Amino acid sequence: MLVNNAGVMLLGPVEGADTSEWRRMIDVNLLGLLYCTHAALPLLRERGGGTIVNVSSVAGRHANPGSAVYNLTKFGVHAFSEALRQEVLDAGIRVVIVAPGMVVTELLDHNTNPVVLETAKRMREEIGEPLTADDIADAIVYAVSRPTHVAINELLIRPSRQRR
């Protein structure tokens, strides 16, 4: 099994953005996932199958102002995962997308834009109790522990009070 879970979320408007932040998100969110997957595929084929879990985000399904480049990377994870799923299904390799909503992590801590931080704070207050890393880990365990003839292709997991 491979779990691609590294991610960077640097938010803000496109206009006036620090484009080095775009490169950082693309390097981690897309290229990191691609390189790890590329390295794991021969090993999974050798053992006759396995599962690749790509942790994405609800941002890979719904775009919002101020998150265009992050949305780009997460929509890319979804598109890559579906194409990969079709490429490797005859090798017994399952591909799972896990798309969490708000999870308590350090992901937002890398942002310095006061508007972004205020928006995140309001969202957190609206949601109440966000997801935890354990919630996501439980979902991954569920998906990978299904019998080999069962493929859970996508899990969208949000806090109960998250609207998008």
Query: What is the H-and-E element order?
Result: EHEHEHHE
- Percent helix: 40-55%
- Estimate the mean pLDDT confidence: 95
If you consult CATH, what is the topology? Rossmann fold
Under CATH, the homologous superfamily reads NAD(P)-binding Rossmann-like Domain
Strand content: 5-15%
Estimated structural class: alpha/beta
Beginning-to-end CA distance, first to last residue: 30 Å
**What's the arrangement of strands in the largest beta sheet?**
1-2-3-4
How would you characterize the largest beta sheet? Answer: 4 strands, parallel
Provide the CATH architecture: 3-Layer(aba) Sandwich
Spans of at least 5 consecutive residues with low confidence:
none
Shape: globular
Question: How many separate domains make up the residues?
Answer: 1
Q: Oligomer, anyone?
A: single chain
Q: What gyration radius follows from the Cα positions, in whole Å?
A: 16 Å
Give the total of beta strands: 4
The count of helical stretches stands at 4
Please identify the top-level CATH class: Alpha Beta
